[in-house]
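Entry 14. Structure prediction run on the chain below.
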Amino acid sequence: MIHLFCALPCEAETLIQHFKLCEIKEFELFRLYQSQDKNISLAITGIGKLNAAAAVTYHHACLDTSSSDIWLNIGIAGHANISVGEACLVNKITDNQHKTSWYPQILFKTDCTSAALITHDTPSTEYQDALFDMEAAGFYQMALRLGTAELIHCLKIVSDNQEHPADKINADSVKKLIAKHMTTIEQVLDSLKPLSEELRSIKTQPEHYQTLIEQYHFTQSERLQLVRLLRQWPVRFPDDDIMKFVRDIKNGKALNKQVQGKLAESDFAIHD
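Output returned:
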C-alpha cells in the first residue's frame, strides 16, 4: 500500500482527486481517504509535528499498515533561494527544537533536487539554505517505527523564498503547486514500488506454512527453516504436493529433515 500525508486540505485536494480517493467516514480523529482498491490512502494531519506524528499512528491503527508499505509526506516548504514551484526530495530532516536529525535513504534515481529540511515548532520567516516546514520531523520519526526506512520519504514543493515571502501563499496557489508536480509524485512512488513489492514477497508466508505449524510442533529456528524449505519446494517440484509427501511425518523436526533430504536429492537447473 501507499500512504500519503499532507498537513493541509489544500495540499491534499489535488492528490485526492488525482488518485480518486474517498473519505472514510467511520474515522473522525483525522480525515482519512482511500482508493477503491485500498492500495492508496491519505491522511490530512493538520499543522505541526505533534499532529503529524499522531496522524501517522492513527492512520496505522485504522488501516492496519505493513512495514513493506510506502510512506510519503507531501507538502509545501520555504527555502532561502530555491525557486518557488521547485520540487525537492528531502535527504536530511532536523527537528529544530531537539536538534535531532534523520537521513532518509534515497536508493533510487530522481530528477528532483535533494535538499535538507528543518522542522520548526512555529511559523518561521528566517530563510536559510534549507527547506523548512512544521511537520516532517513528526511524520518521519513516527513512520520509522512502523515502516521501513528506505520506503519513507518527504517530498516538498517550495512555496516561498526570500524574494517571494510566505504572505503571498493562499489555498489556490498551493493547489496549483501540487498539481504541477503530480508527474513527479508518481515517479517517486513508481521508484519505490519495486522495493515495496520485494519486501512484501519476503514477508508473505509460503503456501502450507500455517497449516503445518498448526499440525506439528516446530521450535522458532525450525519454523524459519520450514519457511526456506517451503519456498524451495515449488521451484524444485512444481507438480508435486508437499502435503502428500509429509503426511506420515510425526513431528516438525522430522518433517524438515525429510523435506530437506528430498530437496538435496533433486537435480535443479534453469533451462531456456
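The chain has a mean pLDDT of 92.
Filed with the rest of this week's runs.
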